[in-house]
Write a structure and sequence with these properties.
Blueprint lengths: L1 H18 L15 H17 L10 H10 L4 H29 L2 H14 L1 H10 L3 H16 L8 H6 L8 H7 L7 E4 L3 E4 H13 L9 H32 L3 H17 L10
Antiparallel strand pairs: 1-2
Helix pairs in contact: 1-10, 1-11, 4-11, 5-11, 6-7, 9-10
Length: 281
C-alpha cells in the first residue's frame, strides 16, 4: 500500500517539475500507477542505455566534440526513442484530456485549481528555501502559506500575490542539490514522465519522501484526494503547455532538441532564482 502511494507521488512530483517549463516549451508526461511495471521498465531502460549511448565524436573533430559535450545527451538514441513514445501518449491521451479540461472549466476556475496546487507545494518550497540558505525567500513562502491558506480559502485565491505583494516561486531538491554544488549529470528523457537529468531524478525521489501527502492518512477518501490532486496537477500542467508546445512543433525542425534545450535553460534559471521577477543569484 505504501509502495504504491510513493510511486503515485513520484509521478505527480516529477510531472510537475517537467511541465512547469510550460512557458519554455515542456514535454507532457502521463500518469501511470503500476510500481512493478515501472521498476521493470526502468531495468529495461537501464539495459538499453548501455547499447544506445551516443558515440562521442573523435578528438580530431573539436567542434563536433564540443557540441556533443554541450548538449550533455550521452543517451540520445535511447532518449529520442522514449521521446517518440511520450509524444504518442500525449497525442492519444494527455492533450485530449487537457483540451476537455479547458472546455468544461472556465479560466477563473482553472486559475483557482492552479492556486490550490501551488499552495499544497508550499511546505516543500519552504523547506528548500531554508536548505539553500534563502532566509528572505523562506519568510515570504511562509507568509504566502499563511495568507493563502486562510484569507485565500485554502489557496483558491492568491491573496498573497494580489494584495500583499508576495509573489510565489518554486523550489525542489534538484535545485537544492545544484546550490550545494552537485552537477546535473547526463540528460534523460524518462518514459511517461519527460525530461530530467541524474541530479533532478535523485531530487525528485527525495522530494517525494519529504512530501507529507505521500504518507498522511489512508482509506478510500484519502486515496481519492490523492488521485484527484494527481489528475488536477497533470491537467493543469498540460493545459498551460498547449500553446507553447504547438509553437515548438510549428517552428522547430527538431522538437526534441528544442525541448531539451528549453528544459535545461529552465532548470538553470530556476537554480539561479531567475524565474522569479527581480531576483537572481
Amino acid at each position: 500500500m505504501a509502495e504504491g502511494r510513493v510511486v503515485r507521488a513520484l509521478l505527480l512530483e516529477h510531472a510537475t517539475v517537467a511541465l512547469s517549463a510550460a512557458a519554455v516549451q515542456p514535454e507532457a508526461p502521463v500518469l501511470v500507477r503500476f510500481p512493478h511495471f515501472l521498476r521493470g521498465l526502468g531495468a529495461v531502460a537501464l539495459l538499453l542505455a548501455f547499447s544506445a549511448c551516443a558515440t562521442p565524436p573523435p578528438v580530431t573533430e573539436p567542434e563536433a566534440r564540443a557540441e556533443f559535450e554541450a548538449t550533455n545527451d550521452r543517451l540520445e538514441p535511447l532518449n529520442r526513442a522514449i521521446f517518440t513514445a511520450n509524444e504518442a501518449a500525449d497525442t492519444l491521451l494527455i492533450r485530449p484530456a487537457a483540451e476537455f479540461y479547458r472546455l468544461v472549466l472556465p479560466e477563473p476556475l482553472r486559475d483557482g485549481v492552479r492556486n490550490v496546487l501551488s499552495n499544497l507545494r508550499g511546505t516543500n518550497i519552504l523547506l528548500h528555501d531554508l536548505l539553500q540558505g534563502e532566509g528572505e525567500r523562506a519568510a515570504r513562502t511562509a507568509e504566502r502559506l499563511i495568507i493563502n491558506t486562510t484569507l485565500g480559502l485554502g489557496g483558491i485565491f492568491d491573496v498573497a500575490a494580489d494584495h500583499f505583494d508576495r509573489p510565489g516561486h518554486d523550489e525542489d531538491f534538484g535545485q537544492t542539490l545544484a546550490v550545494w554544488g552537485t552537477q546535473e549529470g547526463f540528460y534523460l528523457v524518462l518514459p511517461l514522465l519527460g525530461p530530467s537529468n541524474a541530479r533532478d531524478a535523485l531530487g525528485f525521489a527525495v522530494d517525494t519522501a519529504l512530501n507529507p501527502w505521500t504518507w498522511i492518512g489512508q482509506g478510500p477518501v484519502v486515496e481519492g484526494l490523492r488521485y484527484g490532486r494527481t489528475a488536477a496537477t497533470l491537467l493543469d500542467a498540460r493545459d498551460r503547455a498547449i500553446e507553447p508546445l504547438d509553437r515548438v512543433y510549428e517552428t522547430s525542425l527538431d522538437p526534441y532538441a528544442t525541448l531539451r534545450s528549453a528544459y535545461r535553460q529552465r532548470r538553470e534559471a530556476a537554480i539561479r532564482n531567475q524565474d522569479s521577477p527581480g531576483e537572481g543569484r
